[in-house]
Design goal:
heterotrimer; A alpha/beta (about 325); B alpha/beta (about 500); C alpha/beta (about 280); A: alpha/beta; TIM Barrel; eight-stranded parallel barrel; C: about 30% helix
């Protein structure tokens, strides 16, 4: 039987199937089921600074009608933060107490503020085995240069790593004009892993009312292609572990990511769509495929088709349709 | 049944008020400037913990200030009062020299006028709705100073009117806690003939009035006079008694108590949980003020110690922060600093406290917020790192939000820090009553009549509101008394 | 009210008082403590309830003279009344039948330990007690402990009573010879710290009862705060007992020294006053 153990988050994982940050892991029972069905690690729901601020505002609206209790509400955000830490702590301790043996990863959405960095530390100290930084800056600020954005990333990462004792990883978006170089530079920090790519919240337009609405939340099966390309391009050039995220909906895609160079994959939508069985099936199918192909362990497979090892690496960088590589001139099949 | 508005109109039409209005022309009234409250000189008063800063108006000043009041046909000031005191009536009684009647008027609505006259944030309440403020854009009638005057006059005259109480009805009720809400409740219940016992966990009665508000703002002796009045009316006080621990609610029910009012307050200290906060020399404002105000630690005659810092920082912007920083100054601090993350105008503290603090040499480091503390080898705090802030968009409290200025920090030397960032509801009572419905923030949930999810248990004050004013607590106490009386009258066999 | 009915010195510095307190005697459970004041200007100090008699309506407290307030307490006589006495405070000990319980008491820490020993014995456990102190004088309540324990080891630093050695030696000996299901350690902070490190090695769940400084004792001020498992807890309402392996003993001991200078000055002033 193939050995599915792998490494990510600086930790040894039983399988390469990581449950990505979502509401899938907000109770001990849910985490138990995820573990029992073969998840290699669970990333807990991300804590957003914005969320804490919004909750704070909601309390003001609810309670500060007449200004008589302003002194009481003035620093309520600290209590909200403490509550979040408490929830994390209780969840993690609950999992450990129930004897569920699976790495738990705290997740935090980042800003580089001092207060937030200390908060990251407290979250990390709550018993988590690793910390995932959810760092995504949409480059829509017309005044912000790429240099400033870069500095922001590295200042934040270094500050957090300085503060915490557990492994720190990062999940990023592809929005960099120098993405390759960016990933390389990230790999040269003390990060224990890089996950490509974050799936961000999208908007759509309701044409009838001409207003913005949230777009479909779950990913589509073909959404994996972007992550696949970049893992393939980068994995051969860096030492840091990589994980793939977005659109991993079947075992074949998971294998593709591993062959491109990821040591693990993160799944979310698949579990939402198909339930816990989805994880079990993926793990079983991966193992069977490996057995059928005489592959004994995951490390044998990592990067077997990346830009260094594959025989036609130039294809990773092929982005234009050109006659030499294929025709596509029929509109309807 | 007359509504309150009709009642006010009736009172306004009394002959003496009609005559009094005629005595001065409108312009003669409004041309007068608002009285200045005499204060002890700042450099003198910072030497003493027990010297009250405001010395009170004298008779002449009080009458003159009262004459500024227009006795409006539509008294908007009353709308600003959380307990709806008939303000024009008591003010006009002062104007005509009937100080005892002024006190009596006040006491119809407010059990502790000497307290409220000193600690109410009038600038946000009655005085903000005064005709002068609203229509003339001039300083309001000094309603707070006048309330204090009437109450003080009555006390000093030695003739405190003890209200008449109904004949005892033999029904026992209890309060948990002896702060303003419980005292107010007790006063109303005993007037209706109930057998009231006030249970207090500490060894002194008065709650936050005793342990929280310093002598230089609210002398404890004043509170004791009010407590004596309640005793004279028949209220019983039991100190060193923690309801739920010393005896359970069930045991008290067995002893015959039919109704309970929980006024246990919001005495749980809030910490920021930033690195280094557990070093020696860093304490909650509750601890600091309790040591000084309740345990007398500022005096060598008392055994309880208190730390006397040379460089003291107080984190926060409310009245508790003001009380703490001004106490530190009085206890010999060379630098007594307020560290508050928003600007001065956004501080929740009473305007007068901030004014007094500035006069006393308190430093204000606004737009700063502590992010870390450092200590010497023995574990005593010696330095504090502050994050510099700037004001961003307005938030839901109507004030601009503090936003970190990236990378801007400042270290200052401190040897003592008082954390005054608010308090939380006392967890003792909810802990011993699992059926009691509490909110997410651990306040006791009550209906409009202050009744909790357990029918015989009522609650009011900070345990219901989170952390609010003395006057609101007292209003809750009155409301609960009325409501419990109705409940017990219709449910006698409980 | 709060009258002292009995007084006995265990040694020059350790005094036992039996105080009239019917409500507290009825409501208290092992592990609870009281806060008392000796005089009108006095401090509020916490002392664990070493025993109680519900029928007589009395509680027993045992105090070691460590400062002004405890000195004043030791000078009180039978017939005097404590100015203030309130309780029972703190969470009571969780007593279950777990098998074998190892109870370790250091010095005057045996006073709060005794009712716990009795409680565990009554719950059907096998109880092994280790008592330790610097010397013979500071070993207290040995007979009472023997009454409720299946085995007792006494350790003194100087060998003047029982065996010569530290408490941890006695504890380790017991752990190595029999299976221990739970351990309770009460005594000076440093004793609890090292006992806890020892039991952690052997994975024995351990509770320690902390003696933090207090002002009100009802959860109001935070003076007694301690870090347990990374969270801040209040000794007076969340404790006084906590999972020993999670307690930050170093921080706790640092905080115990927070008023050293003030305590020393007060003590000197007090002695000067007595000399007059």
């Amino acid at each position: 039987m193939a050995n599915l153990t792998t490494r990510f988050f600086g930790l040894k994982l039983k399988t390469p199937v990581i449950i990505g940050s979502a509401g899938l892991s907000n109770s001990v029972e849910k985490i138990k089921l995820l573990a029992e069905n073969g998840a290699g690690a669970v990333v807990l729901k991300s804590v957003f600074e914005e969320e804490i601020y919004n909750e704070f505002q909601a309390e003001f609206k609810k309670q500060a009608a007449d200004q008589s209790n302003l002194e009481y509400l003035d620093y309520l955000d600290y209590e909200i933060k403490n509550d979040k830490i408490k929830q994390y702590l209780e969840l993690i301790q609950g999992v450990k107490k129930a004897g569920i043996d699976i790495p738990l990863v705290a997740s935090i959405n980042c800003t580089s503020g001092n207060e937030w960095t200390f908060f990251a530390k407290r979250l990390a100290d709550s018993g988590a085995d690793a910390l995932e930084l959810n760092l995504f800056v949409l480059p829509s600020d017309l005044n912000r240069t790429s240099e400033e954005i870069h500095n922001y990333y590295f200042t934040t990462i270094n500050k957090v790593i300085e503060q915490v004792k557990i492994p720190v990883t990062i999940k990023i978006s592809p929005y960099f004009s120098d993405l390759g170089r960016m990933i390389k530079e990230l790999s040269e920090t003390k990060l224990a892993g890089i996950t490509l790519f974050n799936r961000y919240y999208n908007i759509d337009i309701d044409i009838e009312n001409q207003e913005l609405v949230p777009a479909k939340i779950l990913s589509n099966p073909t959404d994996y292609l972007q992550s696949l390309r970049w893992i393939g391009i980068m994995s051969g050039h860096i030492e840091c572990d990589l994980a793939a995220s977005t659109g991993v909906h079947d075992y074949q895609t998971a294998l593709k990511m591993i062959m491109a160079g990821a040591s693990a994959v993160q799944v979310v939508s698949g579990v939402y769509k198909h339930g816990y069985d989805f994880i079990k099936q993926m793990v079983v199918d991966m193992a069977k495929w490996m057995d059928d192909h005489n592959i004994e362990s995951i490390p044998e497979l990592i990067g077997s088709a990346n830009s260094i090892k594959v025989k036609n690496p130039a294809m990773y960088e092929r982005i234009q349709f050109m006659k030499h590589f294929g025709e596509f001139d029929k509109v309807v099949d | 049944m007359t509504t309150y508005t009709e009642y006010l109109k009736e009172r306004r039409e009394q002959e003496w008020r009609v005559e009094l209005r005629k005595k001065l022309k409108g312009k003669e009234r409004t041309d007068q400037a608002r009285v200045h409250m005499p204060e002890v000189d700042p450099m003198e008063r910072v030497k003493y913990q027990n010297v009250e800063v405001n010395t009170g108006l004298n008779t002449e000043q009080a009458i003159k200030e009262a004459s500024r009041c227009m006795d409006c046909a539509n008294p908007t000031c009353i709308e600003g009062c959380p307990v709806g005191i008939n303000i024009p009536e008591f003010v006009k009684n002062i104007e005509r020299g009937e100080f005892a009647l002024a006190a009596q008027t006040l006491k119809m609505y407010n059990a502790l006028p000497a307290v409220c006259g000193r600690v109410c944030p009038q600038e946000k309440q009655c005085e903000s709705k005064c005709f002068y403020t609203q229509k003339l854009d001039k300083p309001a009638v000094a309603i707070g100073y006048l309330e204090r005057f009437a109450a003080d006059w009555e006390r000093e005259s030695g003739n405190i009117a003890v209200p008449e109480c109904a004949a005892p009805n033999g029904i026992k009720v209890a309060t948990v806690g002896s702060g303003p809400s419980s005292l107010s409740f007790a006063g109303d219940m005993v007037k209706m003939g109930y057998d009231v016992t006030v249970f207090e966990a500490l060894h002194e009665i008065g709650g936050v009035l005793k342990y929280g508000i310093p002598e230089f703002r609210l002398p404890n002796k004043m509170v004791d006079v009010e407590l004596d009045n309640l005793r004279k009316m028949g209220v019983k006080f039991e100190t060193n008694f923690i309801v739920g621990r010393t005896a359970s609610f069930d045991q008290l029910k067995e002893e015959g108590f039919k109704g309970f009012f929980v006024g246990s307050g919001a005495g749980l200290p809030r910490f920021m949980n930033i690195p280094g906060e557990n070093y020696n020399g860093i304490m909650s404002s509750n601890e600091y003020l309790t040591r000084v105000n309740l345990m007398g630690a500022n005096s060598d005659e008392f055994d309880t110690p208190v730390l006397r810092g040379k460089n003291v920082a107080v984190i926060g912007g409310g009245n508790t922060a003001m009380d703490s920083v001004r106490t530190a100054k009085r206890l010999g601090a060379e630098r007594a600093i307020i560290v508050y993350r928003r600007s001065r105008v956004e501080m929740p503290a009473r305007v007068e406290e901030v004014k007094h603090a500035i006069e006393e040499g308190i430093e204000f480091m606004n737009l700063t917020n502590p992010i870390e503390y450092f200590a010497d080898a023995s574990g005593r705090v010696n330095k504090m790192r502050l994050q510099l802030m700037e004001l961003g968009e307005a938030d839901a409290s109507g004030r601009r939000s503090p936003v970190e200025i990236p990378g801007a920090t400042e270290d200052i030397d401190v040897d003592m820090v008082v954390v005054a960032v608010g308090v939380s509801p006392n967890p003792l009572i909810p802990a011993c009553l699992p059926d009691l419905k509490i909110s997410k923030w651990r306040t006791i949930e009550v209906n409009e009549g202050m009744q909790s999810s357990i029918p015989v248990i009522f609650a009011g004050g900070d345990i219901v509101r989170g952390g609010a004013t003395v006057i609101l607590a007292m209003g809750d106490g009155r409301n609960a008394a009325k409501s419990m009386h109705e409940y017990l009258s219709t449910n006698p066999n409980n | 009210m709060n009258r002292i009915l009995e007084k006995e010195f265990f040694s020059e510095n350790v005094v036992k008082l039996v105080v009239e307190a019917p409500l507290i005697a009825k409501a208290r459970k092992p592990g609870n403590f009281v806060i008392l004041r000796v005089s009108e200007n006095g401090e509020r100090i916490p002392l664990t309830i070493a025993g109680a008699d519900e029928t007589k309506g009395t509680i027993t407290i045992i105090a070691q003279k460590v400062g002004v307030s405890t000195e004043k307490l030791a000078l009180m006589n039978v017939g005097d009344s404590l100015v203030d006495l309130v309780g029972p405070l703190g969470k009571s000990t969780e007593i279950h039948n777990v098998g074998t319980v190892l109870c370790c008491g250091g010095g005057v820490g045996v006073a709060p330990l005794l009712p716990i020993i009795e409680g565990f014995k009554k719950a059907g456990n096998r109880v092994v007690s280790v008592l330790a102190a610097r010397n013979k004088d500071l070993i207290i309540l040995e007979d009472e402990v023997r009454k409720w324990s299946d085995d007792v080891i006494v350790m003194t630093d100087d060998g003047s009573h029982g065996r010569k050695g530290l408490v941890t030696q006695g504890v380790e000996e017991v752990i190595l010879r029999e299976k221990i299901d739970e351990c309770i350690a009460i005594g000076p902070a440093i004793m609890m710290k090292f006992t806890s490190l020892l039991t952690k090695k052997y994975n024995i769940p351990t509770q320690a009862s902390l003696n933090a400084m207090m002002v009100d004792g009802t959860g109001m001020c935070g003076a007694c705060r301690v870090s347990v498992g990374g969270k801040t807890k209040f000794t007076c309402v969340d404790g006084p007992e906590f999972d020993a392996h999670q307690i930050d003993f170093d921080e706790m001991m640092m905080r115990l020294g927070g008023y050293k200078a003030e305590e020393k000055a007060a003590f000197e002033m007090y002695n000067k006053m007595l000399d007059k």
